[in-house]
C-alpha cells in the first residue's frame, strides 16, 4: 500500500487490439547500418520470401558515392564475381559492388507474446506479430567468385586436350541397384537433415515489391495498424478484470512438447528412459553401451528393480560373454538394414559379429586378421565388431574390454549353463556357414568358460606341462615295465646266439623331433607330450621294440589316412598342428607318445598315396619352411579326383592363378563345360583347408 501511494496513477490510456494485419505482420531486425548504405533507396532494392519457412532475402543499395566507400575494393569484388564480361547474369552490372544481400533467420520460435504498438491521441493500438526475423549479410557472392575461379583454371588446364586424352581419364565405377525402401527406412530418410534441406530448397521464392517509408502505399498500409472500430462489441477481449488482463498480456510459461529441442534418435535422458517398460529400458541401454556387467545394468535401472525380471529381459537382447552381457547382433543390425561401409546385408553382419563374440567366449584375445580371413568381411566392418566389445593392444591383438565377472557366474549357474547351450547352437551354425573344422571350434580347455582366463607366460606353460608329465609318469612306468617283461620272456624262449646278432648301425640321426614350438599350448617344449628322458624307449640302442614300432606305424598311418580323406590338401605346418591336437586327445601311455619326427610323418604321408606338390612360391615370401611344403591326396576315390589332379598340376606351375584360367583348364582336361559355380565347388571341396 505504501508503494502504491508513492507511485500514483498519472494517466489512463485506452488499449485497442487491431486485427487487420493479423498473421501478416513481421518484425525485421536489421544489423547496424553501414555509413555507405541507405534503407530508403527504393530504386535499388528488391525482396523475396518463402512463406512456409518465413525466410526473406533483401537486396540493399550501397551508396558508391559516399566518401566512406572504397571504390578499388568494390571493383575488385565485382571483377572476381563476374569476370571481365558483363551480361544479364552478372551480379554487379555496374562493375562495382553496389548492393548487399541480407538473409533472414527466425529470432524466436514463439512470438505469441509480442505485438507492435502504435500510440496516437491517447490510444494504444496493438497488433500481434506473426514472426520476428533477424537479417544478416549474405556472402554467396564469394562462392560465386570461387566457382568462376575454378572454371577459369579448368579451362586453362584442359583447353588443349583432345578427345583421346579425355578418354584416358575414364574411371571405373561400381553400379549398385537399390532395394525397395521399407517403411522404417523411409521414416529415417524423411527425418534426416539432408531431406529437410532438400525440402526447403524446393520451395519457390515469391518476389515482393518494396515501398519506401514516404510512399503513399506505405502510408495506406500503416493505417491498418490502428483498430478499425472503437465499439465495445469489437474489443470484448479487452473487457477483462485487471488480473485476467495481466494474464492475457503475460501468460504463464508452458513447456510444450513440440517446442523442446529435437534430440538425436539415439539420445534419451534417464528420466525419459525410466518411463518406458523394463524390456525397452534394457534394450536401449544394451544397444547404446553394448557391453555391460549385470551389476552396472541394475544400477542404471534404478533402485527397486526386480533382478529376476532384469535377468529374464536381458537374455532376450544380449548374450553372456566372460560373465558380462554383450548386446545381440540382430539388435544392432535389424533386418533389412545393411553395412554403412560395404553395403553387406544385416544377416551377413550378424554372422560375422557372432563369430567375434564366440571367439571371446574362448579367449580374452582375438586377432583381427583371423576374423577377417574367416568372415570375408571388409576391414571396416570387422573393426566395428571389435570396437563394440574389445580394446586394441599394440603387438597383441584385441582384448575383451571388461574383466571376467566371476561373481555373476557363481551366483547364477543356471543362467551360465543356459547361455553355454545357446553358444553351442551358435557354434554349430558358424561351423556350417564358415566350413570350420571342429578342432578349430572346440576350446582348448574344458574349464575355459568357468574359470577366469589368465595370461600365462611360456615358462609357466613349460612348468605346468612338466608337472602334468610327472603325474602321468607312474602309468607310463608301469606300461614300460610290462613291455620290458614281454621282451625278456620272448628273448628267453628264443635264446638267440649272441655272437650271430648283428646290430643295425645307422648314422647319427640328423632328423630332429617334430618342432612343436608353434603349438606350445599343447606340448610346451616336450617331444609330442613327453620329455626325451622319460619316453618309453628301449635301453638297448635307444630304439623301440619291433612290436611297438609296428603299432606306432599303424596308428600314425591311420591318423594320416583319416586326415587326408577329410582335407585333401595340407601343408606340413597344418598337418603337424592337427597331429598335436590328435595327441592331446589320446590317453596317457599311448604308443604315439614314443616320439614322431618330421621325417617319419612326411614318409608316412607319402606311403599313404599322397604326393608333395612343389608350389613355386615367390622367394620373398614370409611363410615358414613347413608352410611351403604342400601335400595332397592324389586319389580319394570320389568324383572330383580328376578335377583335383588338374588343379594340383596347375598350382605346381604357379602359386597364383586366375579363376578363368582354372575354369578353361578344367574344361579342356576333363572334357566338361564347367560354369563359375561348379568351379567354385571344385575349389572349395579340394582346397577349403587352405583357401
Automatic annotation (TrEMBL):
Protein name: RPC5 polymerase
Species in which this protein is naturally found: Agelaius phoeniceus
GO cellular component, one term: RNA polymerase III complex
Pfam family, one: RPC5
Biased composition (Basic and acidic residues): 146-155
Gene Ontology biological process: tRNA transcription by RNA polymerase III
Domain DNA-directed RNA polymerase III subunit RPC5 C-terminal, residue spans: 444-689
Region annotation (Disordered) ranges: 146-169
Amino acid at each position: 500500500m505504501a508503494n502504491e501511494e508513492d507511485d500514483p496513477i498519472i494517466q489512463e490510456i485506452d488499449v485497442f487490439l487491431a486485427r487487420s494485419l493479423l498473421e501478416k505482420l513481421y518484425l525485421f531486425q536489421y544489423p547496424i547500418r553501414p555509413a555507405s548504405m541507405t534503407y530508403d533507396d527504393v530504386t535499388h532494392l528488391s525482396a523475396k520470401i518463402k512463406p512456409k519457412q518465413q525466410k526473406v532475402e533483401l537486396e540493399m543499395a550501397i551508396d558508391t558515392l559516399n566518401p566512406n566507400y572504397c571504390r578499388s575494393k568494390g571493383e575488385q569484388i565485382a571483377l572476381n564475381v563476374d569476370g571481365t564480361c558483363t551480361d544479364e547474369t552478372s551480379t554487379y552490372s555496374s562493375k562495382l559492388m553496389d548492393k548487399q544481400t541480407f538473409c533472414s533467420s527466425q529470432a524466436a520460435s514463439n512470438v505469441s507474446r509480442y505485438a507492435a504498438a502504435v500510440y496516437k491521441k491517447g490510444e494504444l493500438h496493438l497488433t500481434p506479430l506473426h514472426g520476428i526475423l533477424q537479417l544478416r549479410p549474405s556472402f554467396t557472392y564469394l562462392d560465386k567468385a570461387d566457382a568462376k575461379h575454378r572454371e577459369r583454371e579448368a579451362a586453362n588446364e584442359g583447353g588443349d586436350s583432345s578427345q583421346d586424352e579425355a578418354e584416358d581419364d575414364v574411371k571405373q565405377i561400381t553400379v549398385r541397384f537399390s532395394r525397395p525402401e521399407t517403411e522404417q527406412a523411409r521414416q529415417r530418410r524423411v527425418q534426416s537433415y539432408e531431406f529437410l534441406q532438400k525440402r526447403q530448397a524446393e520451395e519457390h521464392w515469391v518476389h515482393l515489391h518494396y515501398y519506401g517509408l514516404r510512399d503513399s502505399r506505405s502510408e495506406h498500409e500503416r493505417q491498418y495498424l490502428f483498430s478499425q472500430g472503437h465499439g465495445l462489441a469489437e474489443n470484448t477481449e479487452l473487457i477483462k478484470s485487471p488480473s485476467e488482463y495481466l494474464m492475457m498480456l503475460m501468460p504463464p510459461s508452458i513447456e510444450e512438447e513440440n517446442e523442446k529441442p529435437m534430440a538425436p534418435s539415439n539420445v534419451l535422458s534417464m528420466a525419459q528412459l525410466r518411463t518406458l517398460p523394463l524390456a525397452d529400458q534394457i534394450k536401449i541401454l544394451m544397444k547404446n553401451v553394448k557391453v555391460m556387467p549385470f551389476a552396472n545394468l541394475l544400477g542404471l535401472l534404478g533402485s527397486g528393480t526386480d533382478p529376476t525380471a532384469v535377468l529374464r529381459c536381458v537374455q532376450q537382447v544380449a548374450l553372456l560373454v566372460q560373465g558380462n552381457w554383450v548386446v545381440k547382433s540382430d539388435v544392432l543390425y535389424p533386418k533389412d538394414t545393411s553395412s554403412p561401409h560395404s553395403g553387406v546385408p544385416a544377416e551377413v553382419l550378424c554372422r560375422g559379429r557372432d563369430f567375434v563374440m564366440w571367439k571371446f567366449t574362448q579367449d580374452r584375445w582375438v586377432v583381427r586378421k583371423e576374423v577377417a580371413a574367416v568372415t570375408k568381411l571388409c576391414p571396416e566392418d570387422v573393426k566395428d565388431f571389435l570396437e563394440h566389445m574389445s580394446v586394441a593392444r599394440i603387438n597383441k591383438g584385441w582384448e575383451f574390454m571388461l574383466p571376467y565377472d566371476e561373481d555373476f557366474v557363481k551366483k547364477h549357474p543356471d543362467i551360465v549353463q543356459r547361455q553355454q547351450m545357446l553358444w553351442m547352437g551358435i557354434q554349430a551354425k558358424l561351423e556350417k556357414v564358415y566350413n570350420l573344422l571342429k578342432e578349430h571350434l572346440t576350446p582348448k580347455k574344458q574349464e575355459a568358460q568357468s574359470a577366469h582366463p589368465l595370461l600365462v607366460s611360456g615358462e609357466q606353460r613349460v612348468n605346468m606341462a612338466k608337472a602334468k608329465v610327472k603325474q602321468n609318469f607312474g602309468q607310463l612306468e608301469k606300461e614300460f615295465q610290462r613291455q620290458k617283461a614281454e621282451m625278456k620272456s620272448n628273448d628267453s624262449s628264443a635264446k638267440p646266439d649272441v655272437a650271430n646278432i648283428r646290430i643295425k648301425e645307422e648314422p647319427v640321426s640328423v632328423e630332429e623331433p617334430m618342432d612343436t614350438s608353434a603349438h606350445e599350448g599343447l606340448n610346451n617344449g616336450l617331444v609330442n607330450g613327453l620329455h626325451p628322458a622319460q619316453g618309453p624307449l628301449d635301453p638297448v640302442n635307444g630304439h623301440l621294440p619291433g612290436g611297438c614300432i609296428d603299432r606306432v606305424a599303424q596308428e600314425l598311418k591311420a591318423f594320416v589316412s583319416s586326415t587326408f580323406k577329410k582335407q585333401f590338401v595340407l601343408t606340413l605346418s597344418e598337418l603337424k598342428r592337427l597331429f598335436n591336437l590328435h595327441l592331446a586327445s589320446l590317453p596317457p601311455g599311448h604308443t604315439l607318445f614314443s616320439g614322431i619326427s618330421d621325417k617319419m610323418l612326411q614318409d608316412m604321408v607319402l606311403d599313404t598315396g599322397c604326393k608333395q606338390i612343389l608350389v613355386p612360391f615367390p622367394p620373398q615370401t614370409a611363410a615358414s619352411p613347413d608352410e611351403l611344403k604342400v601335400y595332397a591326396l592324389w586319389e580319394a576315390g570320389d568324383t572330383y579326383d580328376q578335377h583335383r589332379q588338374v588343379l594340383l598340376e596347375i598350382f605346381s606351375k604357379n602359386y597364383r592363378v586366375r579363376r578363368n584360367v582354372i575354369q578353361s583348364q578344367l574344361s579342356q582336361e576333363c572334357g566338361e563345360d564347367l560354369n563359375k559355380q561348379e568351379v567354385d565347388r571344385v575349389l572349395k571341396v579340394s582346397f577349403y583347408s587352405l583357401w
